[in-house]
Write a structure and sequence with these properties.
Blueprint: H1 17-24, E1 39-61, E2 64-86, H2 98-127, H3 130-140, H4 151-167, H5 170-182, H6 188-201, H7 203-211, H8 216-239, H9 247-261, H10 264-287, H11 289-315, H12 332-335, H13 338-351, E3 368-371, E4 382-385
Antiparallel strand pairs: 1-2, 3-4
């Protein structure tokens, strides 16, 4: 009988929940400990030890009870933890600290996410074609008849919440639905309530985690989980029932159309909205609320004025002065991305590693004898065509 050795598969490091709990409770010593769990198997047992403590002891001296502080040794049962087996994970004994391991895992996770999304899009493109695509599109985007048509969106909210509860992740749900919008199976108008429903479904994770606690932790955990739930419900109550307030649909279409014209716009949007803008607001808030109000207030007012003028230009241009009916009077770079696109295109052309060969290619023509008698009414049955 032959034995084969299968090497253990490395797994990502586990997080030590006890360290996180101590950090949350304000234990300063926990900040110096590693978040990566080192020992996966431990044994707890009780040991009797002699413990010496300073205690107030009342003694009788000369017929008088006198209380004094004295060192008193008592036998006390103490819980001792014995480490048995170390955890086996990636980067074990590599000397990397928590920050380095976290950055590496983050980069790997982002790469895997992008690969999975691209794969999902490819698979869906190959599956949802022809009659299948038409049936799925007709079913998902269907509306209720007559005056009950408005209920289709609320049903989509319930469906989004239910599916998110099943997968326990709104990110998985939206990442799966987004390619369907890209290939035209789901409309943006139907994707909007599905996404809102997923925001409700994702709150069940916090509720389940809160119910896993006990005592005072249960009450505090439920408070936070319920706050999360009602925050999302209030957002839906504001941005969905009234059609006028469903402006995220229009914004999504505008961003999609702009990205279709300028492919670099998506990257610039992510960098600005997720890095530059938060860092700018954080810097102003760190400097003081006076700076935040002095700089952020006028900028916010300017944005509101521009948005209102843009809406009036499209909806009610007659109420605006002649000069404000369009932005043509402004410099081109202030109302069009074309100048910026030219700059970015030139920069990419300079730094592009794959340059086109501008040398002229010589095209050779060879004489071929073809029977064209079927196509000619008169003349020879064979001609030489170049």
């Amino acid at each position: 009988m032959s034995l084969s050795f299968v090497p253990p598969i490395p797994v990502p490091p586990q997080i030590d929940k006890k360290v996180i709990s101590k950090i949350a409770t304000g234990d300063e010593e926990a900040y110096e400990k590693s978040l990566i769990k080192e020992w996966c198997e431990k044994k707890h047992h009780m040991v009797t030890k002699n413990v010496t403590q300073m205690m107030n002891v009342t003694v009788l001296e000369n017929g008088v009870n006198i209380t004094r502080e004295m060192n008193v040794t008592q036998e006390t049962e103490v819980e001792v933890t014995e480490n048995i087996k170390k955890c086996s994970f990636l980067f074990q004994d590599s000397g990397l600290n928590d920050t380095a391991v976290g950055v590496i895992l983050l980069v790997v996770a982002l790469i895997m996410l992008c690969v999975c999304l691209v794969t999902i899009v490819k698979i869906l493109n190959s599956m949802l074609r022809g009659r299948v695509a038409r049936i799925v599109k007709k079913t998902i985007n269907a509306e209720f008849p007559g005056k009950l048509s408005f209920l289709a969106g609320y049903l989509a909210i319930l469906v989004g919440a239910g599916l998110t509860i099943l997968v326990q992740s709104s990110s998985i749900f939206t990442s799966t639905m987004t390619p369907l919008v890209g290939i035209g199976v789901i409309s943006i108008e139907r994707m909007y309530p599905l996404t809102l429903g997923s925001n409700i479904g994702t709150t069940t994770t916090g509720l389940l985690a809160a119910f896993a606690n006990s005592g005072a932790k249960l009450e505090n955990g439920l408070q936070i989980a319920i706050c999360h739930l009602f925050f999302n419900l209030s957002g839906i109550a504001v941005f969905y029932p009234i059609p006028f307030l469903r402006f995220p649909i229009g914004m999504a279409k505008w961003l999609g159309n702009t990205t279709a014209d300028y492919r670099w716009f998506a990257v610039m949007y992510l960098v600005l909205m997720f890095f530059v803008f938060p860092a700018f607001v954080f810097g102003l808030s760190a400097a003081g609320w006076q700076y935040l109000a002095a700089v952020g207030g006028p900028l916010a007012l300017l944005v509101v004025v521009i948005v209102v003028i843009n809406v009036l230009q499209h909806k009610h241009p007659n109420v605006l002065p002649a000069k404000l009916k369009n932005w043509e009077w402004l410099p081109l770079w202030m109302h069009s991305l074309q100048p910026l696109d030219s700059v970015i295109t030139k920069m990419l052309a300079v730094f592009c590693c794959c340059k086109k060969d501008n040398t002229e290619q010589q095209v050779l023509y060879f004489p071929v004898e073809v029977d064209v008698s079927k196509f000619l009414q008169k003349g020879d049955s064979k001609e030489t065509v170049l």
